[in-house]
Fold:
Amino acid sequence: MLDDFLVRAALAGIGLSIATGPLGSFVVWRRMAYFGDATAHAAILGVALALLMSLPIWLGTLVIAFAMALAVSWMSSRGQSPDTGLGVLSYSALSAGLVAISFAPGVRVDLSAFLFGDILAVTRSDLVLVWGGGVAIAALIVWRWSRLLLSTLSPDLAAASGINPTREGLVLTLSLAVVVAVSLKVVGALLISAMLIIPAAAARQVAMSPVVMALTAIVIGWIATLGGLWGSLWYDTPAGPSMIVAAALIYLALTIYSAIRRN
Structure:
């Protein structure tokens, strides 16, 4: 069954959604969308370093994503607004990565595959990486759910309860770094944040509790994956962007439904 590239693509998207659903919910609640963009852009520098040092692509992107997460955590702990710093780090790392790739000896690189993903080219080893990372992140969020949620809703109350909000924020940023590393081949650096934010934002329109929102975001990610792949096959469009378009259509439909229900 895994010899069918469409089946592998569907499994990759489903495995990724297991992590992006709950993690994307925290990204929406904490307004971390800009950090997701910055980490994804910086992942291109990780690709360049991996090519130059003959390392696995996922390892290079993971190292750079971790570095970005730690830099943001350090800026936040010093009371600095991370927006400007993120902008500098994001575009500097993206540009440096694009330049560095040109110095990779004897390597012909299709940058569009890293920028927009190439889910139809997912291999069995990629599936192991995506599912391993997705399940690990989902398990981590389930394990620390109450701590993460309380730190998100009320940092002061979390601190009074003996929870370190800074540490929980670092857990989320490092988790986001892992998701970026394992999803680069699936949806690409420019679309990772969309896969995190759009299903979670759509789920927010109809969910009545944080748990329901996280679970609904997972289901929406699954539907967007399958719908996007179907649309890509039927209309001969790029698979990764088609998945994001499917998620956006679901968001639009649920937003209209929510508005009608309120009225």
The chain has a mean pLDDT of 87.
